[in-house]
Amino acid sequence: MDTLSNALASWKELYRAKEQAEHQYDLVYAVARKEAADLGIAANDRKFHADVQPAVKDARSAKIDADTAFKYAEERLKGIHAAIRAWQSVGTSVRQAYATSNL
C-alpha cells in the first residue's frame, strides 16, 4: 500500500502544480493581451501579439510540462488500481477454491 499512497501523494502534488501553471499562464496571457490593447493593436490581432511574447511562451511551456507530468501520474495511479483489482480477483478465486474443496 506504500506504492498506492506514494502515487496518490505524487498525483496530488502534480495536480496542484498543474493548476498553478494554468493559473500563471492565464495571468501572463491576460497581461500580454492588455499590453497589446494599450499599444493600439486591433482586437482580432491581440491574441497573435500575446502568443509571441517570451513570457507567454515560457508560461505555456511550463503549463504543458505540468500537464504532461500530471497525466503520467494519473496513468500510474490507474495502473496501481488495476494491479490491486487483479490481486483482489486472485484472492476471491483462492477463497472460492478453498470454500468448495471440503477441507
How do the helices and strands line up, and which of them pair or pack?
Blueprint: H1 2-38, H2 46-51, H3 54-100
Helix pairs in contact: 1-3
Q: Please estimate the helix content.
A: over 70%
Structural class: mainly alpha
Report the β-strand fraction as a percent range: under 5%
Number of helices: 3
Which geometry do the CA atoms define?
A: rod-shaped
> Main beta sheet: strand number and arrangement?
none
Q: Pick out the low-confidence regions.
A: none
- Distance between the terminal alpha carbons, to the nearest Å? 31 Å
Rg over CA atoms, rounded to whole Å, is 24 Å
Overall average residue pLDDT? 92
Domain module count: 1
Q: Got a strand count?
A: 0
Task: Give a verbal description of the structure.
With about 100 residues, the chain is mostly helical. It has one domain. It contains three helices and no strands. The protein has helices at about 1-40, 45-50, 55-100. It is rod-shaped. The two termini are about 30 Å apart. The model has no long low-confidence stretch (mean pLDDT about 90).
